[in-house]
């Protein structure tokens, strides 16, 4: 026969375990990353989206601005690929119509002193890309053939770097 103290301890233990299981089940709800987003420019300075898909697929990309409000963003532009992007490199102009892409939200003009974020996604949220953040000043420092992206080092540190397209292709998927 159980004493009142034993039952109380047992119920507390079961309650703590139930809360722990609930927290564990809800805390890891992020979309796995299997691509790397970057930006580049054309010869006449127009912004290019750059996506290196590492192993699965990406269906589209979004450019947004983080809002001052928690959990709110302002979408600047969004593009859906006519066919899913499979492993390899894809580039397309973000400010004009592009073959193989549909602008699901036409891009708004970019403004100075604003930080933009560009990333890739899948329609079913099965995969996403590492994002890249940039300002107009960052874009203006780019030259054709160079890609700005957020590199994650072997120890997990993240920093924006600019490399050639060939180097981006060779390095972007290393930490996936």
UniProtKB/TrEMBL annotation:
Source organism, top-level taxon: Bacteria
PROSITE patterns xref list: PROKAR_LIPOPROTEIN, TAT
Keywords annotated in UniProt: Signal
InterPro entries attached to this UniProt entry: TAT_signal
Signal sequence coordinates: 1-24
Protein name: Lipoprotein
Source organism of this protein record: Streptomyces carpinensis
């Amino acid at each position: 026969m159980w004493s009142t103290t034993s039952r109380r301890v047992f119920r507390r233990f079961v309650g703590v375990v139930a809360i722990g299981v609930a927290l564990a089940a809800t805390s890891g709800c992020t979309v796995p990353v299997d691509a790397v987003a970057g930006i580049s420019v054309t010869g006449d300075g127009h912004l290019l989206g750059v996506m290196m898909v590492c192993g699965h697929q990406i269906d589209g990309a979004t450019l947004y601005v983080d809002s001052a409000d928690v959990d709110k963003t302002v979408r600047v532009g969004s593009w859906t690929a006519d066919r899913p992007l499979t492993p390899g490199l894809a580039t397309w102009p973000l400010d004009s119509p592009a073959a193989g892409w549909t602008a699901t939200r036409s891009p708004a003009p970019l403004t100075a002193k604003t930080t933009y974020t560009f990333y890739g996604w899948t329609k079913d949220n099965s995969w996403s890309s590492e994002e890249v953040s940039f300002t107009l000043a960052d874009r203006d420092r780019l030259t054709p053939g160079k890609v700005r992206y957020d590199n994650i080092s072997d120890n997990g540190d993240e920093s924006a770097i600019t490399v050639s397209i060939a180097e981006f292709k060779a390095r972007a998927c290393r930490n996936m």
